[in-house]
Amino acid sequence: MNLKKIFPLIVVLITLSVLGILFIQMSWINNAIKLKHQEFIREVESALIQSKEKIHSKFIYNAKRFFSNDESTQFYLKYNFTVEEGFTKSDFENIISKQLNQNNIKLPFEFCITNSFKDIIFQTDGFQIANQQNDFQMLLSPDDSYVSHETLFLDIKEDKNQIIREMAWMIIASIVFTSIIILAFAVTVRTLVNQRNLSEIKSDFINNMTHELKTPLATISLAIDALTNERVITDTGKIRYYSGLIKEENKRMNKQVEKILQAARLEKEEIELNIQSLDAHAVIQKVADNLSLQISEKNGSLTLNLHATHPEIRADEVHFSNIIFNLLDNAIKYSKESPHIEVETATGHNNTMLIKVKDDGIGMDKETQARVFEKFYRAHTGNIHNVKGFGLGLSYVKAIVDAHEGKIKVESQLGKGSTFTMTLPTNLK
Predict the structure, then answer these.
(1) What CA–CA distances, in Å, run from 402 to 100, 162, 323, 407, 426?
(2) Is 84 helix (H, G, I), strand (E, B) or coil?
(3) What is the mean pLDDT of residues 155-173?
């Protein structure tokens, strides 16, 4: 299946999966908090029931001084129970506190006890009457009491932070694993994007390579056919001409293959530099002379403003020449009908030399500027074959400049041209 078609589907599916996992994780945490809250309520209610049993036990214990059997004491409890008899506010505080602790609740509380007429019998200082509807309630009187119906209101605030602390390891683990999933998703998407870009670059490279090699092969084929012609065989001049043509086209193919091999060696870091003292101005002048005919054929111009006061640099002469050639060749390729190119040098800071190659060509947008030094990347100009090359020139320039411990950057505007600025170390100490 075509990567361009399947890529959006993969991104959508992974995105939906991550969102689904996030939703499940949030739902799980939310349900866990709700369960903790329900557990808290059950523990408080259990403590209240136990408190009621303790209060009844104490009341019955006091009654056993007058009654000899359980039936009589239960009868006495049913018809005579009241918290006002034999209890103090401290008794209730102690009983409630003890039962809460036994149910693993160690939180401050306030309480209030009212009678059948809603009159307050006991009340702690911090109890808020207005909050009675939100408090825990427990009927202290026996359910079948005939005398009174006294109710306990317990105000105890659930510690939300305590719930979070108890669930901290689960929440942290959930966040960590979710982050890992999101990171894996991001890496996957990035890998897919890179794969798609590589696929496009590979297709462009194959198309460009086919075009670059097809032209000299066609020329060689025609020249060979011409050499077999009887009229050419007897003409020494034509034989020399066609033989020279074959030789030149063969050189051209060898150069193209060498560029590809050179790029492979750069990737494996197998290129060794022969660093020596070099006159940068002399090299620039030599390369400019070699390209002067090509520029003249386009009715263009090449201006050299070599103003660096110390043009001696430490560099590999062959590779430095290639750098200048590639920058100038690139300026010619992407220029208008009559290119106007300017090379300027200047003395930089910290024993460096600045070399600028400026053209008035088609320029580049922001995306192209960001990727122009990538291997095999070529700016699209409408027709893939309207600019010759494999997209290796500027990646080679960047690699060699880096190998010389220098820097290179590009500034460009669409329709107004580009300026490549290179910084290389000089011979100065």
Answers:
(1) 73, 57, 12, 6, 15
(2) coil
(3) 76
pLDDT of residue 253: 76
Separation of CA 319 from chain center:
37
Tokens of 141: 């009187």
Name the percent of the chain in helix, strand, coil, to the closest 5.
60, 15, 25
pLDDT value of position 390: 47
What is the amino acid identity at position 34?
A: K
Summarize pLDDT for 54-89 with one digit per residue, the tens.
888 888 776 665 555 666 767 777 777 888 777 888
How confident is the model over 308-313, as a mean pLDDT?
87
3-state secondary structure (DSSP) of residue 301 = strand
E strand map for 190-300: 275-279
**Spatial separation of the C-alpha atoms in residues 222 and 246, rounded to whole Å:** 9
Measured in whole angstroms, the distance separating CA 363 from the mean position of its chain's CA atoms is 30
Report the C-alpha gap between 258 and 269 in whole angstroms. Answer: 16
Q: Name residue 358's beta-bridge partners.
A: 342, 419
Distance of alpha carbon 205 from its chain centroid, rounded?
A: 29
Contact 398, 221 (CB under 8 A): no
Q: Which two tokens stand for residue 126?
A: 């911090």
The string over 324-357, giving b where at least 16 C-beta atoms fall within 10 Å of a residue's C-beta and e elsewhere, is bbbbbbbbbbbbeeebbbbbbbeebeeebbbbbb
Q: Where does residue 242 fall: left (phi above 0), alpha (psi -120 to 50 degrees), or beta otherwise?
A: alpha
CA angle (195 as vertex; 192, 199 as ends), nearest 5: 140
How many angstroms separate the CA atoms of 302 and 262, rounded? Answer: 28
Q: How many residues does the structure list for the chain?
A: 429
Closest CA to 21 of 166, 164, 172, 175: 175
DSSP 155: E
- Residue 414, classed as helix, strand or coil, is coil
Please give the pLDDT value at position 255: 67
Structure tokens at 359: 């053209």
Q: Where are the alpha helices (DSSP H) in 361-404?
A: 366-371, 393-403
pLDDT digit string, tens, across residues 89-114: 898 999 999 999 998 888 889 999 98
DSSP-derived pairing of the beta strands 301-306 and 340-347? parallel
What is the DSSP pairing of strand 312-316 with strand 151-156? unpaired
Residue 385's pLDDT is: 41
- Cα–Cα nearest to 341, from 378, 389, 287: 287
Measured distance between the N- and C-terminal CA atoms of the chain, rounded to whole angstroms? 59
d(CA 386, CA 380): 9
